[in-house]
């Protein structure tokens, strides 16, 4: 785990304008920078970057965040990967809270990773050179409709049919990194004293080579497709320190911009499908790596877009693959992230369908893809006779684990209601059987409490200003915090969370560091962040506004207390004494407000 103090230091060192500006064309617009949003298609710029806040925000699609968030959303990096990349750009070494790993071990691991990355880069260069020299491989790609431009974009190559062709691409064919990277296989045993080089042979032979890139564009593995008939049709690199099959997707690096422009990502089964679809204008396609789709892969896709469409054959194998993808998606779907399933006729894959019917017809099929909820319910009822008690019970039993792994959401509620309807079960009984909480029933009984003043958003104003200027927290006394919390108990918990975060960050805590801290801590502060972006404040005027809002809250609470005292059953003397104390506090606060008002007018 990366220490929070390092995250704060990193965000204070980097300039978000440089980070974003290297990927998005920005122009100065007043105090901020303006450009076309990289997360949705627009013609009029609505994407702003604030050098003061070190924060970006799009007024068109609502995306916003720090430099870390930008790399995660724009480049598809994980949080750790984004931090690593930013730290490297300013010459910092990312510390980890893992005391079992020594600095020497960490340096050794980094050197090993660097060596393997260099080996994969050299191999990719060699395979690309071999493709230029192989008429058979070039003719195969032409027959599949792949142009030189698309081959260049995806870095396609060719592995010759010889036993040890990579000897021509590396000075030392005996290097241990060739085996560790999965490029070369070394047989065990052999004659005593025999040269290890003679026991080695290339893993990929006589195959079209598809480089698999990570989120930084580095080649970390290969997929090889045989030219003619033979098995296996596709051969992948083994898992290595650089490459884990369940975490990567072929073509995602190349597809990022097309995914944003299309508004969805299309997940297909083969590398050739990805390349052929890009040739036909569908650059938003990616492929799993010969295995079932995993939650890690789905999470990567959902960082890029709000809609994921899986394309499978309509046969039993395709349905089974779709079911595994469904299970991988269920923990991650939400009311804003949708998943759909496209089932093509058994005689077609996406490539052949586009070629026979055209791009527009295929786009229409994508638009009509089956929503996740519909596919889930189809799978639940499949093979069960809903006219019998046993059939309905089996359907519920099958649906139970799927619904349980879904996060609470309106979508899950809708699925539960539909399932209750088709299995003829009351909603609350089905929810009880599944062990998921139903909507809370609100009580209509009114408590006999003293009347409270109406909430007019003052507490939100206080929190908004604290987020914008975390150092203002030192201006709040404990009585101020208690008054705000009592004034709006439902917002009080969030206020305490914000204040605790500010204390944790210390005196150097900034706007962007605080927002990043809250978000990584799982705090839902999106509405509050949106409010901070609606208006720019000069610091001195913002402090006056904060103090004024706090005093107004305290005045309202005092008025409520006075009303309570007057209507109480206290003895006359006690009532008079308490009333006098509260009235004096009111007068003092009103005098302070009057003085602050005079100062404000002087600006």
From TrEMBL:
It comes from the Bacteria. Residues 577-603 are annotated as: Disordered. SUPFAM superfamilies: DNA primase core, Zinc beta-ribbon. Its cofactor is Zn(2+). Binds 1 zinc ion per monomer. Keywords: DNA replication, DNA-binding, DNA-directed RNA polymerase, Magnesium, Metal-binding, Nucleotidyltransferase, Primosome, Transcription, Transferase, Zinc, Zinc-finger. A zinc finger (CHC2-type) spans 37-61. The keyword Nucleotide-binding does not apply. It is an enzyme of class 2 (transferase). It catalyses: ssDNA + n NTP = ssDNA/pppN(pN)n-1 hybrid + (n-1) diphosphate. Its EC number is 2.7.7.101. Residues 579-603 have a biased composition (Basic and acidic residues). Residues 263-345 form the Toprim domain. PANTHER family: DNA PRIMASE (PTHR30313:SF2). RNA polymerase that catalyzes the synthesis of short RNA molecules used as primers for DNA polymerase during DNA replication. NCBIfam families: dnaG (TIGR01391). Monomer. Interacts with DnaB. Belongs to the DnaG primase family. Contains an N-terminal zinc-binding domain, a central core domain that contains the primase activity, and a C-terminal DnaB-binding domain. This is DNA primase. It comes from Oxalobacter aliiformigenes.
């Amino acid at each position: 785990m990366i220490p929070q103090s390092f995250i704060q230091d990193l965000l204070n060192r980097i300039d978000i304008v440089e980070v974003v500006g290297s990927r998005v064309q920005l122009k100065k617009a007043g105090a901020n920078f303006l450009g076309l949003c990289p997360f949705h298609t627009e013609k009029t710029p609505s994407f702003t970057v604030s050098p003061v806040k070190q924060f970006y925000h799009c007024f068109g699609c609502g995306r916003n965040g720090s430099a870390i968030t930008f790399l995660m959303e724009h480049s598809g990096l994980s949080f750790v990967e984004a931090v690593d990349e930013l730290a490297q750009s300013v010459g910092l070494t990312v510390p980890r809270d893992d005391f079992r790993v020594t600095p020497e071990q960490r340096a050794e691991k980094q050197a090993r990773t660097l060596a393997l990355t260099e080996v994969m880069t050299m191999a990719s260069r060699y395979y690309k050179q071999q493709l230029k020299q192989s008429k058979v491989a070039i003719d195969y790609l032409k027959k599949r409709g792949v142009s030189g431009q698309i081959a260049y974009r995806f870095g396609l190559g060719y592995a010759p049919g010889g036993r040890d062709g990579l000897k021509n691409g590396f000075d030392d064919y005996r290097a241990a990194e060739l085996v560790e990277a999965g490029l070369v296989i070394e047989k065990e045993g052999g004659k005593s004293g025999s040269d290890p080089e003679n026991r080695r042979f290339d893993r990929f032979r006589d195959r079209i080579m598809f480089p698999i890139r990570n989120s930084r564009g580095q080649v970390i593995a290969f997929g090889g497709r045989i030219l003619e008939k033979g098995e296996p049709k596709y051969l992948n690199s083994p898992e290595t320190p650089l490459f884990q099959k369940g975490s990567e997707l072929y073509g995602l690096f190349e597809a990022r911009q097309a995914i944003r422009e299309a508004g969805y990502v299309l997940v297909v089964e083969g590398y050739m499908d990805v390349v052929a679809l890009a040739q036909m204008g569908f650059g938003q396609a990616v492929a799993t790596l010969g295995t079932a789709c995993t939650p890690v892969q789905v999470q990567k896709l959902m960082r890029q877009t709000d809609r994921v469409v899986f394309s499978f054959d309509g046969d039993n194998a395709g349905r089974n693959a779709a079911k595994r993808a469904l299970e991988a998606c269920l923990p991650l779907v939400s009311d804003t992230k949708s998943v759909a399933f496209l089932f093509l006729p058994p005689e077609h894959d996406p490539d052949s369908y586009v070629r026979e019917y055209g791009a527009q017809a295929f786009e229409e099929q994508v638009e009509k893809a089956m929503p996740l909820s519909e596919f889930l319910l189809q799978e639940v009822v499949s093979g069960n006779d809903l006219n019998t008690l046993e059939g309905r019970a089996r359907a519920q039993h099958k649906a139970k684990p799927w619904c349980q792994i879904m996060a609470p959401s309106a979508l899950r509620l809708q699925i539960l209601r539909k399932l209750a309807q088709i299995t003829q079960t009351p909603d609350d009984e089905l929810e009880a059987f599944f062990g998921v909480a139903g909507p809370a029933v609100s009580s209509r009984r009114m408590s006999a409490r003293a009347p409270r003043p109406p909430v007019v958003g003052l507490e939100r104003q206080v929190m908004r200003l604290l987020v914008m200027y975390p150092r203002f927290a030192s201006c709040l006394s404990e009585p101020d915090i208690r008054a705000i919390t009592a004034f709006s108990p439902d917002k009080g918990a969030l206020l305490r969370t914000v204040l605790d975060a500010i204390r944790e960050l210390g005196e150097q805590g900034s706007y962007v560091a605080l927002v990043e801290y809250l978000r990584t801590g799982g705090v839902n502060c999106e509405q509050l962040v949106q409010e901070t972006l609606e208006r720019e404040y000069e610091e001195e005027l913002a402090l006056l506004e904060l103090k004024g809002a706090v005093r107004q809250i305290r005045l309202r609470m005092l008025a409520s207390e006075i009303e309570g005292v007057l209507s109480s059953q206290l003895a006359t003397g006690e009532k008079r004494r308490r009333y006098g104390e509260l009235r004096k506090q009111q007068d003092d606060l009103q005098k302070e407000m009057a003085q602050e008002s005079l100062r404000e007018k002087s600006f």
